[in-house]
Design goal:
Helix content: 25-40%
Structural class: alpha+beta
Shape: elongated
Order of helices and strands: HEHE
Strand order of the largest sheet: 1-2
Number of helices: 2
Distance between the termini: 31 Å
Number of domains: 1
């Protein structure tokens, strides 16, 4: 897992990129929230000082913004 490899050098973790565009994410809003919650828990267990942020949105999204 990349988290173990980079936990000393990376302290801010973005979960996905533009999930409101289907080329990056094909799931629902609810599934993205589930992913974000699970990933947050894992990051905080391995790297307690890590900061988890949600993905930046495109703003003209095809998926999440219509959720």
């Amino acid at each position: 897992m990349e988290l173990y490899r980079y936990k000393e050098s990376i302290k801010h973790w973005e979960i996905l990129n533009e999930p409101d565009i289907t080329v990056f994410w094909k799931g629902t809003v609810e599934k993205y929230v589930e992913l974000l919650e699970a990933t947050y828990k894992t990051i905080r267990e391995i790297c307690p000082e890590g900061v988890v942020i949600s993905a930046g949105l495109d703003g003209h999204g095809e998926n999440i913004s219509k959720g």
